[in-house]
Amino acid sequence: MVEPVGNHYVVARPVYSENLFNEEHEKLHRYHKTFWDHLKLYFRCSPQRVKKIALGLFPIVSWLPVYRFREWILSDIISGINTGLVAVLQGLAFALLVNIPPGYGLYAAFFPVLVYFIFGTSRHISVGPFPVLSLMVGGAVVRLVPDDIAGNGTSTNISTINEERVMVAASVTFLSGVFQLLLGILQFGFIVIYLSQSLISGFTTAAAIHVVVSQLKFMLQLPVPGFNKPFGIVYTLERVFSQITETNIADLVTSLVVLVIVFVVKEMNDRYKAKLPTPIPIELLVTVLAALISHFVNFEEKFNVAVVGKLEEGFQAPVAPDVGVLQNCIGDSISIAIVGFAVAFSVAKVYSIKHDYPVDGNQELVAFGLGNIVGGSFKGFASSTALSRSGVQESTGGKTQIAGIVSAVIVLIVILGIGFLLAPLQKSVLASLALGNLKGMLMQFKEVGILWRKDKYDCVIWVVTFLAAVFLGLDIGLATAVAFQLLTVVIRSQIPSCAVLVNVGRSNIYRNRKDYTDIYEPEGVKIFRCSSPIFFANIEFFREKLITAVGFNPLRVLRKRNKALRKIRKMLKKGELQVTPKGLICMANHTHESDEELDNNRIEELDQPTSMTDLPIQIDWGADLPPGITVPRVDIHSIILDFSAVSFLDFSAMRVLQKTLKEFVRIDIDIYIAGAHEGFLDKLERCAFFDEEIKPSMFFLTIHDAVLHILLKKDIASSPKLKLTKEKGSSNDYIIIPSNGLRSRECTVRLLSPV
């Protein structure tokens, strides 16, 4: 019964052990589904299930029929036009990261959008090239088709290299799409949970550094080969600085001017976004202006700058992936598939929470997988979502993926009709536009200080991920970062937080002894908490911390007691000890005997429970013992283990825990376990954890139940005159006033049988 009294509450109930609680309150039997039950349910076929699968596989069927045409169409068109213009420029710019001709970036900005329109679940993300993925694809391209096979650099050789590189990029993209599709079909959308926010932040920041370094050769127009190997960034910088005197000044000046303009205007867009009806399309304005100046001033001939050149009009026939390439880029494709999905799903979740609609991780994998398969078949490269482009689509009023279709139409117009207008555009301008989109990623450096103050583990993960991705490359760096992150989880669970608890404020609240001053610790009782699952890797740590908390090793005490009993028996047999009403009296001078003599090669007997049935007197281990016999003093009589935070206990740990508890029981210390979760007791029973020494009655609902049980048990044992007033209508409920001072009011306590 709970009685509210102002802002206090008073609870009157019996002291419950787990067994007693289950006796008084009937527990419902629940059937727990087996693996085969889940398998049958998954493959069950019914009209409702077919409809659900169809709606899940084709989300467009759910939202398109309820599209609010009059309210949303204008916003989607405006948003789509803005997003499409940005997508065109980013497609051209990010193609440079892939080390293929810029025109192929338009295919990557077109086909995945069409596929995502049908299969995607997010209404606001803009699908297409992403700089990190482009760089990862470019790494595979450079590794399989290196620059040094260019020979004398004739146009024929360059054309051949470009064709091979396009084929490699398409094959890598196709295979990454296959991996994403398989993961989606197998319902592996949860894999994104293994990429923490700290890891993604550190990885994308490192990728931004790689993007900056990779674009230097376009900004300076230097013949720098790609290095897709550990410390490749160092080799790239070494090549750049060794040729720095050959820099094309026109490209350098153009790059710097474009960068400054883009950064300034983007900063204005961010600062005055509340006042601007739509962000200033600075990338579009700079591109048009740069192309016009380059065309009329004839930069290509006068200053020998590198330009985009003629873009192929229309689409090329779809191609099958190169089997040889597929065999050599499996690792790259897996990394691209996971990173692409993780980034896109993270952005999609942000917008889904903001606009209150669900996104399905498994369906997102299917959508991006099919998008990459189709895009790769048409010689595009890997797609995800660029943060800046998605921001444009959402901030300019985009409501649904109709905006995505409109943006695809803009890209289509460029591919089919006006691509030739971009021919005089300098590649250094595209490189600068690519760098202009990295501000958000580079600003993530500020997170290091914040993480260090909030969570040092996350900070270390960020730093290790960043350094590994920068110096080992994005593919090896990602694998290293994931492995290190999982290692930190193992370390944290292997070294759990343990504490000795005490009563705070004479109530039913128990907290860490080190944190409070108004505390009460029952005499002879230790309350020990472990805030972690207990398994094979941390059970020894748990045991060591428990021994440290109680102040003695129970096995050592047990062995010392058994050795003492051996010596007492031997001395009684020789007549060196005499039994008197006051205890044992030594009748001879003490002679020291070594432990080896006493053990007599029977060390295993020392670990057995002490037995005094053959002695004429019961030994009080807390009293003075005969000369020459020393046993460590034990000042506690009860230990309570708080298992409220122990989510699971594996079999290996269970064996060690059982052995440890038996060691305490054998030296006459009562063990209680409080707060164990549902099913914990059942698992222990299935694993034959209980026996004559370890019994189910040691389990209590709460720490306070266990403490009250101990205090009542000790009060009755030490105070025979303790007055017990039996309540009416109950054979086991008594009103008591204990002498320990923990409770200030009369309480109803249920007497329990000893453990």
From TrEMBL:
InterPro entries assigned to the protein according to its UniProt record, in alphabetical order: S04_transporter_CS, SLC26A/SulP_dom, SLC26A/SulP_fam, STAS_dom, STAS_dom_sf
Entry superkingdom: Eukaryota
A GO MF label: secondary active sulfate transmembrane transporter activity
Membrane topology: Multi-pass membrane protein
Record's keyword annotation contains Membrane: yes
UniProt GO cellular component terms: membrane
Keywords: Membrane, Transmembrane, Transmembrane helix
TM region positions: 77-98, 104-120, 127-146, 166-192, 199-220, 240-264, 276-297, 334-353, 365-382, 402-423, 460-487
Subcellular location: Membrane
Keyword ATP-binding: no
Boundaries of every STAS domain copy: 515-710
Record-given protein name: Chloride anion exchanger
Species: Spheniscus mendiculus
Organism ancestry: Eukaryota, Metazoa, Chordata, Craniata, Vertebrata
